[in-house]
What does this fold into?
Amino acid sequence: MNASRHRIAISIPLAAVLVAGGVWAEPAAAQELAPEVERKTETITVTARKQEETLQEVPVAVTAIGGADVERFNFDKVEDVVTRIPTLNVQIGGSGSGAQLSLRGVGSSNISAAFDSAVALDFDGVQISTMRILQSGFMDIQQIEVLKGPQSLFFGKSASAGVLSIKSKNPTPDWEFGGKAAYEFEERGYTLEAFASGPITDKLGIRVAARFNDVQKLLFNTAPVADPKRGEQNFNGRVTLQFDPTDNFSANLKVNYVKHENDGAIFYAVNDCGKNGQPDGIYLLGGGFVVPPGYGCDTSGKTFFLPDIAPPLAIQGFDGAHKPGNNNGIPYGIAETLFTILKMDWDITDSLTVSSVTGYVTQSAQDLDEYSYGGLLGGVSFGVGTGETDHQLRQFSQELRLASDFDGFFNFMLGAFFESRHVEFNTGQQAVNISLVGRDPVTGNSYDWYKRHITNGDAFSVFGSVAFDITDDLELSGGVRWTHEKKTNTILVPYVHTFLSSGPAFIGSGFDSGPIQFKDNNLSPEVTLAYQVTPDVNVYGSYKTGFKSGGIDNSALPSSNLLGFASPDPAVRAATADALIYESETAKGGEIGVKSQWIDESLTVNATAFYYVFKNLQVQNFDAVSIQFSTSNAGEVTTKGFDMDLNWLTPVDGLRLYGSIAYTEAKYTAPFDPNPNDTVIDNLQGRAVARAPKWSGNVGADLRVPLGNALEFGITGNMQYSGKYFTNEDSFDDIVQGSFVTFDLAVSVGDPDGRWQVAFIGSNLADKRYISTSGGRPFLAPAGNPQGLLAGDDQILNLNRGRQLSVEASFKF
It folds into this structure.
């Protein structure tokens, strides 16, 4: 594997592939059919401005993926979507926030559970603050929309870089039943999915859908563990009720339950041996204990070394809803989510509608893994740096909107939003691994400490937008959102190992910081001018702003630095709190775009050019020697470029070509030291941000061909390209992922009306592995250590998922 890599996508039609394969129909036949067949691209409806508008009308940079395309390639995870959306990067991880999303080079760290995502996650109209929900994937999807650039006016909270919107299917007017079964050969996984949908009465409809997925071998572990296979299980269930008692009122209730289980928080992580070319020992207790790493320098993604926890450290876990006895030191993860959404629309007049969206989420997630990413002693799996975590979330949100639909030149929307959130982050950690010296002589515990962060947050905003039809073809629209957000965090340390608390470097058991508070206000305006040049060509220009609230870091170690909270001096207490507070993130800039259709609406070409400046971008880095997280605000990031989408229903009957291309230049444009707590002064000004390739895109083709009167043959291919990019934001010497290409292919035979189908689906056919994120391997030996060891420079590379080959059978009636 190249020590240079990252991700994005570019598009060039795949017609040449089909021509070479002899699939292209004869031109003469195509010309004869052309006058008889209407070839217009499907009208796609989106809700980018919290109202239904066609994709071609809305003056927003949106890419939409329909449910048919989601099913065609068996997309069941958000990571799968990146092959269709240039500039979207996704990295799923077990620790921290659970996942990371970025658009056009801007996102939020996945190693911090304190950050909201800069790319907001919207499920059926409700924004979700936890990215852990993405670990389980999705099912029964109507459409996926990706809104690029700041979206604070209509989506508000934490949409400073964009929105990923997922819409599930609703009840159908007639009864439908369907299901599918799939088996994946590479990872040895199977999926079962079924739905039933239809009317209970003429006013009440129901849809019930469920999906179960069991993957036995997401990766093969070369460490000497009891079970070398690491896998996962997912269950998704959803009940949807659609109630239409009158012509002017409707209500939609969705109740979702998700359960995700895995064999550890860490999956596609390999160890790069750095410039010294050798795996570094795991340096503990000032060098008094050095564990042989156990792994080699293979970063191809073919092998993984993920040991169980060392026996002296795996005796006992902290109190909580965890597997008894710390699961005997065997990594595991489990998360349950209950998510309820109620949407109501009331047409109070022919031209005024009141809309309400209520969301309630509860989530409980626990996991255990070791974060030395190595360790082998006497032939025994000897993972150290154990982290056992317990996340608890309760979130309630309510949005109300009043929107007009006048026949005249003026329309408006007024709204208010409220969110209340309670988050608990409980963790028992082995950052020192002091129990290698001995268990706690007082309690018998084998972990370093048990720490709790309890955060309560409230957000309130009001927003309004107006639209003026200056002429029949020229619209001026805009609005503003005012947001007030406050957070209160309390750090509790019920327990610290006696060997640590008896020294000067750590606090004692029973520590309570008291409330640490953060609050901020923001005004986010937006204005757009849109002009319909012809019935099929629209151009627009927008000025936009974005906002993502700051907060209190939850990665503080229970060191003596926290003793300032107990000081009688208010200035000392305030300074101690300020060291844990990160500032709010804002964005300003604009874009110009064109949305167009050509050749009798058979060819759609949409393009956008953008320029945005982000202030105080929230960043978290990790020091692999001192085992400390560093949370800071990057002074300024500027992102600019363009992207273009293409969709063409060709003159060849049944053949559709599609693609996209993106150019992005995202750089730090002000001084920024990513590790302000160390003694080295770095400055990343002028360097590209992580996960931001300059060129990216995809190209694909979809062909549907009748086989007689009773069968239809389908083949869909997609190629994704990404240019090179940095994989971390530590220094100018960070690992760079080189440019790469991936291929997907789906082949199917079935009933022309979709009553049944058998399909072969191949994702990442060439088994291309690339780096999504990287960082120093914990417990590296420092330079100039007294043992005379080489300074540690090993890196952890988080890779994408490998090749997947599936066979799938589905039915619907």
